[in-house]
Design a protein that fits this description.
Elements: H1 4-20, H2 24-27, E1 37-41, E2 47-54, E3 61-63, E4 74-78, E5 86-93, E6 98-105, E7 111-117, E8 120-122, E9 134-137
Parallel strand pairs: 1-7
Antiparallel strand pairs: 1-4, 2-3, 2-5, 5-6, 6-9, 7-8
Signal peptide: 1-18
Keywords: Signal
């Protein structure tokens, strides 16, 4: 038993180093979310365009919705392009009104529900980001 103890320690140390080396989830700045992202439009206006960008940047990538997402209570699902977990989502409504939702954690949240509250589009409290996403009306 005493002869096999150094071998066991060596094997365990090797396994520990391999496990802690650099998991892809910690080192990769970009991540492809496998689950579809759901968008629910509970506003009175139709969504005509959606784009996403890494949080804090203006490098938006268009999302193909296929057609407008009518207001009322309609939903669609789409695949997000690979990128970081924190994303800014830009929503364009009929009448060219644009709303930007900042720092949406798409790795922990797999959808948004757009509501109208006092004439502004907001996302309800989002546990993943520690509070409501910040809504910024662009124009």
């Amino acid at each position: 038993m005493t002869r096999s103890l150094p071998c066991l320690v060596t094997v365990l140390a090797t396994l520990l180093l391999a496990a802690c080396a650099t998991p892809a989830s910690r080192t990769a700045p970009d991540r492809l979310t496998s689950a579809p992202f759901n968008l629910v439009n509970a506003t009175a206006d139709s969504v005509t365009h959606v784009a996403v960008a890494p949080s804090g940047s203006d490098d938006f990538q268009d999302i193909d919705l296929g057609t407008s997402l009518n207001g009322g209570l309609n939903a669609t699902a789409f695949q997000l392009p690979s990128g970081p977990c924190l994303r800014d989502v830009q929503i364009t409504f009929t009448g060219e009104r644009v709303s930007r939702l900042n720092a949406v954690d798409v790795c922990r949240t797999h959808g948004l529900r757009l509501n109208t509250l006092q004439g502004r589009t907001v996302v309800p409290d989002n546990v993943a980001t520690g509070g409501p996403a910040v809504d910024q009306l662009i124009h």
